Structure formats: structure tokens, C-alpha cells
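Class prep. Write one:
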Amino acid sequence: MNVTLVGISHRTAPIEIRERMNIQESRLAAALSDLVSREGIREGLILSTCNRVDLAVSAEEGAEVKPLLRGFLADYHRYDVSAYDRYLYWLRGREVVYHLFRVASSLDSMVLGEPQILGQLKQAYRAAREAGALGGTLHEITEQALAVGRRVRRETALGTTAVSVSYAAVELAKKIFGSLEGKTIFILGAGKMSELAARHLVSSGASSILVANRTPSRAEELARVFGGAAVPFAGLFEHLGRADIVISSTGSPEPLVTRDRASRLLAGRKGRPMFFVDIAVPRDIDPAVNELDNAFVYDIDDLEQVVAANRKQREREAGWAEEIVAEEVQRMMRRLASKELAPTIVALEQRLERIRAGEMDRFRGKLGALNDEQREAVETLTRGILNKILHGPITELKNGADSPEQSAMVQLIKRIFGVSD
């Protein structure tokens, strides 16, 4: 199995290097066609995201893959990639299977358990198939990597808990409201973290967005992004009572929402709860608001505690996921080895059977007239000898099926027994 992978990721290189190695989606089909058209390359797969670029190929036995991949990268990027050698990782055989299975399971992601990578690998697989770049061993490995990723999602809770402040806000909101369908969000102070939290809330079902910012143009800009409405900062309390969820991140030195103001807001909502996500430092929401019925206030420290607890949970789940990956890698290697060894074993058996049959023909005259029982005894005897001779090499081939030395062992046994490719 001559399968090789060269890659660069967030673990080995900073963003400015990864950007230079990126393979654009618009050029992916052409890149794949170019890759597999190179002499010695049978199959190719390119996974290119903001956090990694992985090129995997299946090559003819004996092909020197490293220079082929270096040449492809140099031609695609139009510069000598040797300057980036220290950022690259090179994997062979079993290492490629293990790497792709972990990538698909989100065990190698910047955010452990993030769900996007499985979809990105699926897109890379689809693009390679459409380009005619898959159809053999690498096809099987990639297909199984996707299945392993799905199994990890199904059998562990690796990706079910929030590990960012913005996701934690969504998780808490869901606990308070059950469903976020139709809920109104008020963004108070149009900072980046507020925007990100609002984006996650909207993707979870919240429908209406109001924005207030000391700079009106920024409020209007953010409102346009979400299809919402900007409201004057000076009159924000005229609109704040409409909000189910308030995300606040202003630069105010004093709390904007005091206990008294919150009490009046809640009275106007007639028992409907309000959820305050206070990302500001100093805080925008008076902690005493939390003492009121139907008011729920979480500041940045509260959210970080949720995130920290969830990270620990993900790390525990990652242990189970790693066990699944190890089990699946072993199963995959046995399957590939069995498939690759089958032609060699058949050829070996046929080679020795031809020798046996030839010797039987040569000595038939010397054996004289044999009855059916005697002929059967001689056949059984010679076949038994042949099987005993074959037992040793076939056992060695199967036992070393997933070892790095397998290919060399196969070639050695072929030479010893005179088996041609």
C-alpha cells in the first residue's frame, strides 16, 4: 500500500504560512486532475481549509512520492516549497489512515469536537470523485474516514457541548427558553463578540434583531447584517423591554442596566423572562439584576466557567473517540492488507501447484500403473507437502499485513518462490 500524505496545519504553522499553502476551492478540480495525471500517482485527495491543507495520494509500488508531491505543490503555488519544509508533515501507510480518521473525528481540530471538519472532508471526497481522482485504496480509506467521523459523533458526546463564549451563551439561552424560535435579540454595543453570539443565536432560531450603539453607523451596519433594526442609543430603554435576550458589550464605566431599570422592564413583560449576556468589562448589567424573578444574568466569568467545564467534558469524550479511531484503524489495515495480499497468495499457490503438477507428470511413467486409490493417495501426499511448504510464508504475510515492512516482505517471498508480478 503506497499511500502518502503531506500536510500543513494549525499545529505546525501560523496562519500566514497556511494562507500561502492554501488550495482555492475554485481551482480544486483542476488541481486534482493535475495531481493524478502525474506519472506514478494513481489517486489523489486534497483537503484545504483555513486550518489545514492535506494532500493524500495512492501511488504505484516503488514510486518515489515525495518529489512528485513537491513538484505538484511547486507548480501549483509557483514557488519553491522547500522554504516551508519545517512546517510540513509527511505520513505513510498506516499513519495516513490514522491521520485521516482523527481529522474526520475532529480530534485534530483547533477546537476539539467542532463539527465543520467532517463536512469539509465530505466535500473534498466528493470533489475528488467528480474529478476522477479516487477509485482504489485511497477511496476506501477516505470513505471509511467519513464513516468513522459519523460513528464518533453518534457514539460520543464529543461535539455536543459549547467550548466558546458565544456558543455557551446559546446553550444557556436554550436552557432558559427551551426553544429560541421567534425570540428577539437586543445587541447593546456592536462589538465583535456580540456579533458572533448573535450569529449563533440566530442560527438556533432567534428571529428578530435590535441593535443600539453609541456610533449610529455601526448599529445600522450590524442591523443590516442580520436583517434587523437599529435603535437610538439614547432611547434604548424604550425598546429594551421587547428583548428576550440582551447581549451587552459597551465601554460604559458604570452599569447601564441597574436593578431598578431591570425591574421596570420585567414588569412590562408580564412574566416573560429576560436573559442578559454581559460580555462587557466593566460590566454593563448590575449583578443585582439576577435577584429579580425571571431575570437571568451571565457575565464573561460565568460563561468562561461553562466553557471550562465543557472543555473538560470534551476531553473525556475525546478519550472514547481515540479508542474508536484506534479500533477502526486496525480494522481498516487488516481489510486493506487482506485485499492486497490475496493476489500474491493466489499467485504463490498457483506457482507451487504448477511445480507439483509438472513433477507428477514427469514421474507418472516411473510410478507404473496405479489404481484410483493409489493415485488419490499420491495426490493427497504431494498436496499435503505443498500446503506445509506454503503455510510458513503465507502465515508470515498475514501476520505482517499492516506492518511498514509488508511490501518488502511480499517482494522477498515473490523472489524466493519465483512469482512474477
About this structure: Residues 335-417 form one domain. DSSP finds 13 helices and ten strands in the chain.
